[in-house]
Amino acid sequence: MAAKPKLHYPNGRGRMESIRWLLAAAGVEFDECFLETKDHLTKLKKDGFLLFQQVPMVEIDGMKMVQTRAILNYIAAKYNLYGKDLKERALIDMYVEGLLDLNELIMHHCIQPADKKEQHLATIEDKATNRYFPVFEKVLKDHGQDFLVGNQFSRADVQLLETILMAEECKPDILAQFPLLQSFKARISNIPTIKKFLQPGSQRKPPLKEEDLPKIMKIFH
Amino acid sequence: MAAKPKLHYVSERGRMEPIRWLLAAAGIEFDECFMKTKDDLLKLRKDGFLLFQQVPMVEIDGMKMVQTRAILNYIAAKYNLYGKDLKERALIDMYVEGLFDLNELIMTSDYQPADKKEQQLATALDKATNRYFPVFEKVLKDHGQDFLVGNRFSRADVQLLEVLLMAEECKPDILAQFPLLQSFKARISNIPTIKKFLQPGSQRKSPPRQEDVPKIIKIFY
Predict the structure, then answer these.
(1) How confident is the model at residue A146 (pLDDT cuts 50, 70, 90)?
(2) Fewer C-beta neighbours within 10 Å, C or N terminus of chain A?
(3) Which residue is closest to A94 within chain B, CA to CA?
(4) What is the pLDDT of residue B193?
(5) How much is the pLDDT for A210?
(6) CB contact under 8 A, A94 and B131
(7) What is the pLDDT of residues B91-142, one digit of tens each?
(8) Which of B156, B182, B200, B132 is nearest to B25 (CA)?
(9) What mean pLDDT value characterizes chain A?
(10) B98 touches chain A (CB under 8 A)
């Protein structure tokens, strides 16, 4: 029996969260080794486990994989969440990359200095509402299907749900103008593997708390 | 006969350059439509050609593709530059993503304000020498093969060459400690499609001229 994938990262969302989502969506159980101090990171580096001296790192199928997108691509392809052909993959990649950009923006909110936070939040809301969400509302409207690509559940659906929920944490009514995204959210949240991941006690991580930020920064800097 | 791919961007390297490299490496002729003013970008947006209102955009195989990585993934897979199986793809993705990070650091330094530019470039070259190049020197040393992955030319080789040359432009002796990267550079530069791309008059772009930077930034902001 194959060993469970093992995730190496601090106990927070950061760049590992999308990977947790995808593994969970695929119904793949995984273990986590949390970096608590800079020494942990230094040790991983010294042991030669981090190709570019960085985390996320995921031990999977005999590899020590690094680089978020490389890891996501591998999981998606392995578990058939990457479309059925090149053209579906192209669509999925475009959607996922756009969503990862928005994710990145939201993720950086917690590290904004106090005087920039409000402006940054406004930028997140603006981009979510005017640049990204309209695209996916239209995609769903145009084909009338349950999933974003190829009438089949894929990593694009997982990424969209993750990003919608993160955006809602910033602004609870952010989906007000997007009825199809609202029903998408309900529908995808009900998929058994996703539903399980959304329950308390799962390996899904909460947003970073203000008071935990210094500790996390110290690990990396 | 299929239409040639058509690239929409400014006449600069930026985020389009890896795409030019990969198409050229694959021996694919392409056309370019250069944005010269903000109005050119606004027109593309108004016409609904840019999924997330951004360039790069590449018209290819009936799609208007956006998002650099999505475009590169499609080209690589279509022209068999993406390894022969999942595990080779995983390696290629890890290498390419690391090189992308370095590419981004070097490329964006040209667009930083004067007081930040030197610092960022120094950081980029430090990372090149201590974090990234040692990895690829070791990969080549360990397997003794001509190409990075699977004993076969792939997008990883193209991306590595592109970044090696960019780094050398900043610091001509940057490969001094990396004999295998030096021979890699010579070897890959000699591949006919690459050799052609490296000749004057090709569609390869130069680093931006200092005096052009404000104008370029104004197109996007």
Answers:
(1) very high
(2) N
(3) B70
(4) 98
(5) 85
(6) no
(7) 999 999 999 999 999 999 999 998 899 999 999 999 999 999 999 999 999 9
(8) B156
(9) 96
(10) yes
Classify residue A74: in a domain, yes or no. Answer: yes
Furthest CA-CA distance within chain B: 52
Confidence check: pLDDT of A15 > 90? yes
Q: Quick one: tokens of A160?
A: 């969209």
In a domain, A96, yes or no: yes
How large is the ipTM? 0.97
Q: Which residues of A touch B74 (CB under 8 A)?
A: 86, 89-90, 93
- The C-alpha of A42 sits at a distance from chain B's nearest C-alpha, in angstroms, of 14
Report the domain count for chain A: 2
pTM above 0.95, yes or no: yes
Clarify whether residues A158 and A66 are in a common domain.
Answer: no
Q: Return the residue of A nearest to B65 by Cα.
A: A94
In DSSP terms, B32 is beta-bridged to B7
C-alpha to C-alpha distance for A57 and A7, rounded to whole angstroms = 6
Say if A26 falls within a structural domain.
yes
Residues A69 and A110 in one domain: no
Q: State whether A24 and A61 are in the same domain.
A: yes
CB-based contact, A116 to chain B, within 8 Å: no
CA distance B13 to chain A (A): 20
Q: Same domain, yes or no, for A178 and A208?
A: no
Q: What are phi and psi of A37, to 5 degrees?
A: -135, 170
> Are residue A49 and residue A100 in the same domain, yes or no?
no
Chain A residue closest to B132 (CA)? Answer: A52
Q: What is d(CA B104, CA A104) in angstroms, rounded to the nearest whole number?
A: 16
In this predicted model, what pLDDT tens digit does every residue of B22-61 receive, in sequence order?
999 999 999 999 999 999 999 999 999 999 999 999 999 9
* A2: pLDDT strictly greater than 80: no
Contact (CB<8Å) B53/A131: yes
Query: The CATH number of the domain where A161 resides is what?
Result: 1.20.1050.10
Cα angle: B210, vertex B211, B215; to 5 degrees = 110
Closest chain B residue by Cα to residue A79: B86
Helix axes B179-189, B155-170, angle to 10 degrees: 110
Task: State yes or no: pLDDT of B1 exceeds 60.
Answer: no
Q: Confirm or reject contact between B67 and chain A (CB < 8 A).
A: yes
Q: Is the peptide bond before A56 cis (omega within 30 degrees of 0)?
A: yes
- Of A160, A84, A92, A157, residue with least CA distance to A128: A160
| Domain housing A55 | 6-79+198-220
Interchain contact A78–B (C-beta under 8 A): yes
> Is the pLDDT score of A147 beyond 80?
yes
